[in-house]
Amino acid sequence: MQPRNMSMSGVVDLAAVKAAQEAKTKAEQARAEAARQGGGTGAVSPADLVIDVDEAGFERDVLQRSTEVPVVIDFWAEWCEPCKQLSPVLEQLAVEYNGRFLLAKIDVDANQMLMQQFGVQGIPAVFAVVAGQALPLFQGAAGKEQIRQTLDQLVQVAEERFGLTGLTVDPDADPGAAPQQPAAVPAGPYDALLEAAVRALDAGDFGGAVQAYKNVLNDDPGNSEAKLGLAQAELLHRVQDLDPARTRQDAADKPGDAQAQIAAADLDLVGGHVEDAFGRLIDTVRRTAGDDRDAVRLRLLELFEVVGAEDPRVAAARRALARALF
Fold this sequence. Notes:
Elements: H1 14-36, E1 43-44, E2 50-52, H2 58-64, E3 71-76, H3 81-96, E4 102-107, H4 112-117, E5 125-130, E6 133-139, H5 144-162, E7 168-169, H6 191-202, H7 206-219, H8 224-239, H9 244-253, H10 258-270, H11 274-287, H12 290-307, H13 312-325
Parallel strand pairs: 1-7, 2-4, 3-4
Antiparallel strand pairs: 3-5, 5-6
Helix pairs in contact: 1-5, 1-8, 6-7, 6-8, 7-8, 8-10, 8-12, 9-10, 10-11, 10-12, 11-12, 11-13
């Protein structure tokens, strides 16, 4: 499986956002079921927080484990002097964070395919995999406090967006002992409808996906997965028939036209230009008034839902919107 590049400071990947919400929902259900049965996911030894990974074990040791804990990957080589400075720091922090992330060490000389899949251009290089989604963290040697700040952001995103709270560490646990697997999650009452919506999205039937998500929300207005899916499906439905070149030209020619800017912002977001989309609409809020201004504000709030409230770009845009309004 080839990793996908979902950076915390890069583009928005709608498929990754959908996978994130699904992973969060399933993790919450699994924890609830484990608590109901009086069990848990078991505990690991501190020695198990740092593992060596190769191509044969990548699926098991990284992708599968990333559904329960963020996995930080340290790409290194024996001949790499900066690696020898960075790796001990990462290992110390893995123990210090006490299960909030798992450190996987990959020797690039022995695992060229993984190096290519992640697009590693030089080492040391540090990535993370969260709920099956890959994101770059940093390249080259870095100071301990800088690394700590990056890890703090990673574990926060993993918990808030993916529902991953990490591993339970027991100093008395036997190293290498396999942790108990979470209890199976029973099917929820709306799983069939949500799956139908996902199939419609994958097939490009965005109108059908919109209706399927609305059907869930009619019965369960607080369903977070349906809310997120509806916001995505409505966005994709809106841009489906747009001519990108004409839409962008209209926006350039009519900076004060609310509908022209709204359409261009939708294209910006689908294309991964999150800050451009937000900035365009905030600028339009400043230029417009009345119903036009309200329409722009409401569309901006919808785009916030697509990206996710915990994304730092959303927080910054909310502050900028408040300044533009007041």
